[in-house]
Amino acid sequence: MHIFSAFPLAVRRSAAYLCVVFATVGGVHAQTAPAASASPTAQKPYKLRIVGGLAGISQYTRQEEPFWNKELSRLSGGRFDAEIVPFDRAGVPGSEMLRLLQLGVVPFGTTLMSSFTAQYPEYTAPDLAGLNPDIATLKTTLAAFRPYLEKALRDQHGVEALAIYVYPAQVVYCKKPLRTLAELTGRRVRVSSSTQADFVGALGGVPVLTGFAQILSSLTAGNTECAITGTMSGNTLGLPSITSHVHALPITWGLAIFGANQTAWAALPPDLRALLRRELPRLEATIWEESERETADGMACNRGAANCVAGTKGRMVLVPVSPQDERSRQEILASTVLPRWVQRCGARCADIWNQTIGPVRGLVAAPASK
After folding, report:
1. Stretch 116-140: mean pLDDT, rounded?
2. Ordered DSSP codes for 293-304
3. Bridge partners of 163?
4. β-sheet bridge partners, residue 26
5. What integer best gives the mean pLDDT of the chain?
6. What digits encode the pLDDT tens for the residues 343-366?
7. Which of 3.40.50.970, 3.40.190.170, 3.30.1360.40, 3.40.50.410 would CATH assign to domain 9-32+45-167+254-296?
8. What global pTM score does this model have?
9. Phi/psi of residue 247, each to 5°?
10. Architecture of the 170-252+304-361 domain
11. How does pLDDT run across 15-45, given as a tens digit for each residue?
12. Which parts of 105-191 fold into alpha helices (H)?
């Protein structure tokens, strides 16, 4: 049986397309012999093909794309080069990226951790709704979970995790006045994941799973009254023109893994591997710093503050996190979000949580009930 025959037709077509795009050895573009008229010492750079993050997002346009298209060549004195394409424009189903990395169809690629929800829910643990009220907490949560995640990806999927990126905070926008999160009761709220749905439902809201591209039309048509999305992406989408209030509490963030097929990684020249091991953590740190800045800048722009830099100035009311909101966050995380994640994930996930994130967050996960 062909290796792709078990995949849906659309996935097989994507895989076939990527096999052409990555007509490579270890993800490296095949080198051709120099023409007879060329200098005998001339040699084309060793070239990588990379699948990056979401198109149009500043993480991709300002960080990932320049690093691979320009910085790699500069850092290596022209010896190494790369081309990058965002995964949502490469014909790659996000939910299949980990599998395509494992197969080597995509030798080097970026996968959203939220895409693991259905098949590998244990990997979504660091970004459960309500778990990380600020980026400092998110850093400690991820640090506790990262050794397990990297080992599991290596041992179970043959994928080397080379960097973990973060998107800006995901917050609540509403069309009508909002003073506390408790006032979401009865409101239809756009969510993008099951853990966000659990959080909204526990507040008495009605979660509505909606794609990012449909947020604006859904709010305009009245199908939703509120939406959870990024502080800056919501601004870019134009939410300040149709919503009036934005709550300051990050419900989730959004993590992404940049990984390599182990065979492709091992096939790289040792000095290229060393360069990437040195530079990718720096790229990761830069992306985290920008995510923190963009979270604050998105909020500043949404409310029309003078310090708005990259977005469009709106006139929204910024709703601060009240003591009641903080109590609700902690209670909902412990009583609803974590237990339902364990229920979907299984007893083994409770053990993973209790060995990694649980101790640093002071929160024990009970085994899933039968």
Report:
1. 95
2. HHHHHHHHHHTT
3. 258
4. none
5. 89
6. 999 889 999 999 999 999 999 999
7. 3.40.190.170
8. 0.87
9. -90, 145
10. 3-Layer(aba) Sandwich (3.40)
11. 444 443 443 434 444 333 333 334 444 578 8
12. 135-157
